[in-house]
Design goal:
single chain; alpha+beta; Serine Threonine Protein Phosphatase 5, Tetratricopeptide repeat; six-stranded antiparallel β-sheet; four-stranded antiparallel β-sheet; 8 helices; 12 strands; about 35% helix; about 30% strand
Length: about 325
């Protein structure tokens, strides 16, 4: 190896060591007036996460028309959300101009699956969330540039979705900006942006929760053909809905992959609950035999089966 190669390799080694040392050092964190927060809600099997910074009212005007002194600083609906240019008495969030829907970095809206926002489709992904507030109607913007600071580099060409939302008056002051999910149903959640005396709700809906769950379950099971637990979990989910045909289909798939006391006893229980009592007793005997063979504690299940026999008399 010549000297040039030795020098290059040594330099690369030193750089790698330096990177490792820097990565291990504690990170300095600055105090922030608008502190970071995150809220997450699962809808079915879909995660919805909002990450934002929480400015305070601090007795300042928040939502109002932009005075002429502010309008001169922006073209069209361009953002006026710049504390370095804001003069005393000017509103923090002037109407009809883009707002970052928080403070500091752009507010981040993330969904793990495709959803509907106020009935309009939004693909799974990570977006910046901006808003154009107005007195009677807001425009909520989901933009593909999730890494921007504030809305200073906001580019409407990168908008993925815009929806309208109706602001509502709050009876009491909300001092710190707050995002909540309320109410929540089996397939939807209402996001509420609350600040000062204004609340702006919008809905996030999963079009077909059960179909999405089934698709994910099928994909997981297909990707893990030697795992007997995943189809058993799917069977349990269908059993909870008393869909015995699907439950038994999946539990048989689990048993076919690998017989265990757990899946055999689960099948016996499902058969019993489905009213197939003779099949249930036969499956129970097989489960108990397998449990004893594998030295599994079968006492609780045997007690349950004894109760079945009593009920069958």
């Amino acid at each position: 190896m010549n000297n040039a190669k030795r020098i290059l390799l040594t330099a690369l080694l030193l750089l790698s060591c330096a990177a490792i040392v820097l990565a291990q050092q504690p990170q300095f964190r600055s105090l922030q007036a608008s502190q970071k927060a995150s809220v997450m809600q699962t809808i079915g099997v879909t995660d919805v996460t909002i990450t934002y910074h929480r400015p305070a009212v601090k007795a300042r005007p928040i939502f109002a028309d932009a005075p002429a002194s502010m309008e001169e600083r922006a073209k069209g609906d361009a953002t006026l959300d710049n504390q370095n240019e804001r003069k005393p008495g000017e509103p923090i969030v002037p109407y009809n101009h883009v707002w970052r829907a928080g403070a500091n970095e752009a507010t981040i809206f993330q969904v793990s699956d495709d959803v509907l926002i106020n009935g309009q489709p939004l693909k799974a992904g990570t977006y910046s969330l901006e808003a154009i507030p107005a007195k009677d109607e807001w425009t909520l913007i989901f933009n593909s540039d999730a890494g921007q600071w504030g809305a200073f580099a906001y580019d409407p060409k990168k908008d993925v979705l815009r929806v309208k939302a109706k602001p509502q008056a709050l009876g009491e002051n909300q001092e710190w900006l707050l995002y909540t999910f309320d109410p929540v149903t089996a397939n939807a959640a209402t996001v509420n942006l609350r600040w000062e005396k204004v609340s702006v709700p919008f809905t996030v809906e999963v079009k077909d929760v059960k179909a999405l769950w089934r698709a994910k379950a099928d994909a997981l099971i297909a990707a893990n053909p030697t795992n007997e637990v995943f189809p058993l979990n799917a069977a349990s989910a269908y059993a909870a809905d008393k869909n015995w045909d699907e439950a038994l289909k999946f539990v048989d798939q689990s048993i076919k992959t690998k017989e265990t006391f757990r899946n055999l006893s689960a099948k016996a229980t499902m058969l019993w609950n489905a009213g197939k009592k003779e099949e249930a007793m036969a499956a129970a005997d097989k489960a108990i035999a397998k449990g004893k063979e594998d030295k599994v504690d079968t006492a609780a299940f045997e007690k349950r089966v004894a109760g079945w026999k009593g009920d069958a008399k």
